[in-house]
Amino acid sequence: xxxxxxxxxxxxxxxxxxxxxxxxxxxxxxxxxxxxxxxxxxxxxxxxxxxxxxxxxxxxxxxxxxxxxxxxxxxxxxxxxxxxxxxxxxxxxxxxxxxxxxxxxxxxxxxxxxxxxxxxxxxxxxxxxxxxxxxxxxxxxxxxxxxxxxxxxxxxxxxxxxxxxxxxxxxxxxxxxxxxxxxxxxxxxxxxxxxxxxxxxxxxxxxxxxxxxxxxxxxxxxxxxxxxxxxxxxxxxxxxxxxxxxxxxxxxxxxxxxxxxxxxxxxxxxxxxxxxxxxxxxxxxxxxxxxxxxxxxxxxxxxxxxxxxxxxxxxxxxxxxxxxxxxxxxxxxxxxxxxxxxxxxxxxxxxxxxxxxxxxxxxxxxxxxxx
Length: 371
Ligand code: ADP
Ligand code: MG
Hints:
One of its GO terms (cellular component) is nucleus. By secondary structure, the chain is of the alpha+beta class.
């Protein structure tokens, strides 16, 4: 566990074990094939280590974003990856390189791509409920390990959960710790947050974030994996936020056709407004749905009604504009809230705003692209 000297007040870790190499990445790796994906400020490409012939994924992260030096954020990402080194469902970090403008993380390659792809796939390609049960157990085991380590991911979504193999379906690797934080002590943080569809109500309400915040996102994720439908997505972000704040979820047969009632019960234990009443990762792992008590039917789902229509990693032939990235659908809420170490220990430090006035509420939120 990092000591107080290595923790900043906002839960970011500033000390790492990894030696950041300054020799040329290209001397040691060849880039191969097309890019594996891209996000807000990173592009990820497959590479082969010259000395071993092994494939890896190289994540190229710009240090300057929106005119600000964001090296500390990348160091935090490295520190979190280091702390999760023994976690079988978290992508492993092999090496890191630094140039004048970038840091390159050499990661284990999750060759099966994003679970997003199967979430939006039609029929034959879509996950069966049996697949989702196996993958959900892995996601929860991975996240339980992070939470035991006092790490919150804060950006769990289908683009950040990858597969080691697509066909036959491989295992889960959780990636993208760019928004992750340590929750070791109650700290005031001035922050973030991720993707509107996956954001928990407490984030919108300026209430404390905790490990429960990830559990909400897992509820949304499992809903999407089973149905192909993004449960809170509205036509506008305001509508999405209102749906989240009101926990306006459709559990009807129309959406959950062919899905077991235990699966629905499982999701209901996560999409709970009060974070204290939300199931923890450990509790989820004990749920009957994941323990052979269900009688899952294969299910087929239709195309996704979602921002998944415009994913953050939309395929592009062009090189990423690393100095001025395309506008991202991600909304970042810069606000002030308090982190706390456990789901049972949360204390609100600030009154929640009433979300029946989403437009007014939004005007109080300073929206910016994430640094
Ligand atoms: P960002 O912080 O910019 O969202 P991510 O770490 O999520 O960056 O990487 C962007 C995308 O690159 C991911 O959504 C995924 O498609 C791909 N990717 C990231 N890491 C790996 C990896 N280790 N193996 C394969 N693909 C990856
Ligand atoms: Mg990402």
